[in-house]
Write a sequence for this structure.
């Protein structure tokens, strides 16, 4: 986020007044629970002067606090982070720009209801909070039996702290925007993208062009004001294999579900670009997954499930599950750069683009999901491992197979690929998912968050002995060591449900977010100066998620950095002693927020 400079300039030395008058609450406070997000609500109050608000919440079991840093007279604040089935007491403190505070003696009470009866059942199997990435885990969890889905956030102890019912069972993905709101893609019949806030309210929507309907696998808001997403278009293909297990089967002309990468304006939804995999790759190459999922658009021979940008060369990377392939092409020309995946059956025209494996151990990706470019420049993805073979080699049976997070290093000059990390090196349970899943490299700890989103076998055994179609979800966090350590393991499954029709749960992806709230870089509004031991002492309050430097000028125009503020007695208080002030008659100060 770009730096923002304080708008408050101080000429000379300002001394804080000792006036007894402090900030006063004129109306409220009141708290109104949200209808769409049952663990959130709106706090409202007004004060006689500009003030900032902080809250402390206790629920009889745990406590938490939240500070808001804007100075307003009228406050309408979204509060989130409550847990289900608790009686919450909310203590409110207001502070003015002179850092005088007033604590409201009356506590607000918010009683949260238990989770809905059809909310997926979860158990924390392993947790080492000291080694985990701090923050919250965001995902959409689907109850396949009830055909209900919930957008959910959990803390690192595995407790739900926010949820909202997903509008449709097909709304499988969610991500957090920089402003703290959530972004979801909604396929037909809505055919749009939606931004929702922590109250579960729709903030804005973007409709997709009719000729390029929204595919629910991925929608990506970009840093340059656009939305990249995957679509479905029916294309006729000749000489297409009619069977993927019989090499003697005949060829046919058929419609194929092509999955163009589409780019629209985030301002007005205008169509900007569209790139089609069928024009870049071999349209008649088939795998054992080709006829697995029927589609109204045609044979599902691509099944694109992820699209990301590579800003290093203005290119786009796409994952095609059915093709067992991740490929990269240049945005400007549409020219293919490379293909990551097993080499079988690509045809001579695409051989020059295939990445060649170097080093051991090495295993190809099959039915993969969610490629990500890491801060190391490597490519991390979730490898479902479907069959681990291409026609007409014998595939591995599901009960003998495994899924994993895998990291590859790609040398684009030499078209070589090296496997540099693999979650299976951690040992332990052998987990297999036939579909969905994700892997994320976590920024602060360097750990890897892995979503085993549709577990059908654990160590070769179904999760349920009575319902063979029941699937489990496992969200696990590994260290990024050569021999990874499992530091978190969250299971979604109802082991007590022995009904033969029990279907279990599904989670397409999960993400670790640093906070439920956003932390915009904002100007400091309560900078105060006093004199201590002959030196100016600058004090202010601000969001501790950022760092703050002090600058000085003698004329209010030419600024020089003089140091960084240190944290005061409270997490959100900062101070700086200007020992370089000397005998200058006038000093202008400002704070720069990073």
């Amino acid at each position: 986020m770009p730096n923002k400079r304080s708008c408050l300039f101080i000429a000379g030395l300002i001394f804080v007044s000792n006036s007894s008058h402090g900030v006063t609450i004129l109306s409220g406070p009141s708290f109104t629970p949200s209808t769409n997000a049952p663990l959130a609500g709106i706090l409202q109050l007004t004060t006689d002067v500009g003030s900032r608000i902080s809250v402390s919440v206790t629920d009889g079991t745990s406590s938490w606090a939240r500070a808001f840093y804007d100075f307003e007279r009228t406050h309408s604040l979204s509060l989130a982070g409550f847990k289900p089935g608790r009686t919450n007491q909310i203590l409110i403190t207001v502070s003015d720009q002179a850092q005088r505070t007033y604590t409201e003696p009356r506590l607000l009470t918010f009683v949260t209801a238990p989770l809905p009866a059809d909310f997926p059942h979860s158990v924390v199997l392993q947790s080492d909070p000291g080694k985990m990435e701090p923050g919250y885990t965001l995902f959409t969890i689907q109850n396949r039996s009830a055909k209900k889905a919930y957008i959910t956030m959990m803390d690192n102890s595995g407790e739900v702290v926010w949820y909202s019912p997903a509008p449709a069972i097909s709304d499988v993905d969610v991500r957090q925007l920089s402003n703290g709101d959530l972004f979801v893609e909604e396929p037909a019949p809505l055919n749009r993208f939606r931004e929702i806030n922590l109250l579960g309210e729709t903030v804005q929507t973007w409709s997709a062009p009719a000729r390029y309907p929204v595919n629910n696998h991925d929608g990506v808001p970009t840093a340059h004001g656009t939305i990249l997403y995957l679509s479905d278009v029916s294309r006729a293909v000749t000489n297409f294999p009619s069977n993927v297990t019989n090499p003697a089967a005949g060829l046919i002309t058929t419609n194929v579900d092509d999955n163009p990468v589409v780019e629209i304006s985030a301002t007005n939804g205008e169509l900007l670009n569209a790139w089609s995999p069928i024009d870049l790759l071999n349209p008649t190459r088939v795998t054992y997954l080709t006829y697995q999922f029927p589609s109204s658009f045609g044979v599902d021979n691509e099944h694109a499930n992820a699209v990301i940008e590579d800003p290093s060369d203005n290119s786009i990377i796409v994952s095609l599950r059915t093709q067992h392939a991740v490929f990269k092409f240049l945005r400007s020309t549409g020219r293919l750069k490379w293909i990551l995946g097993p080499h079988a059956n690509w045809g001579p025209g695409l051989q020059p683009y295939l990445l060649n494996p170097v080093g051991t151990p090495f295993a190809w990706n099959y039915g993969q999901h969610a490629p990500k470019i890491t801060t190391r420049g490597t490519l991390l993805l979730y490898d479902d491992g479907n069959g681990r073979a291409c026609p007409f080699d014998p595939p591995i049976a599901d009960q003998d197979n495994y899924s994993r997070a895998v990291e590859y290093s790609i040398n684009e000059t030499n078209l070589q690929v090296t496997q540099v990390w693999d979650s299976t090196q951690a040992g332990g349970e052998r987990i297999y998912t036939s579909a969905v899943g994700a892997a994320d490299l976590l920024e602060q700890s360097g750990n890897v968050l892995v979503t085993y989103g549709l577990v059908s076998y654990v160590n070769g055994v179904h999760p349920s002995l009575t319902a063979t179609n029941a699937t489990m979800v496992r969200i696990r966090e590994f260290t990024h060591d050569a021999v990874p350590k499992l530091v978190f393991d969250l299971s979604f499954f109802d082991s007590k449900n022995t009904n033969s029709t029990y279907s279990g749960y599904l989670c397409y992806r999960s993400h670790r977010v640093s906070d439920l709230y956003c932390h915009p870089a904002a100007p400091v509004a309560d900078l105060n100066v006093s004199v201590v031991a002959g030196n100016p002492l600058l004090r202010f309050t601000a969001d501790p998620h950022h760092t703050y430097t002090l600058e000085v000028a003698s004329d209010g125009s030419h600024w020089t950095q003089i140091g960084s503020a240190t944290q005061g007695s409270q997490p959100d208080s900062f101070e700086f002693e200007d020992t370089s002030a000397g005998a200058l008659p006038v000093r202008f100060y400002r704070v720069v927020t990073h």
In short: Residues 1-19 have pLDDT under 50 and may be disordered. Residues 285 and 345 are 6 Å apart (CA to CA). The longest strand covers residues 40-58.
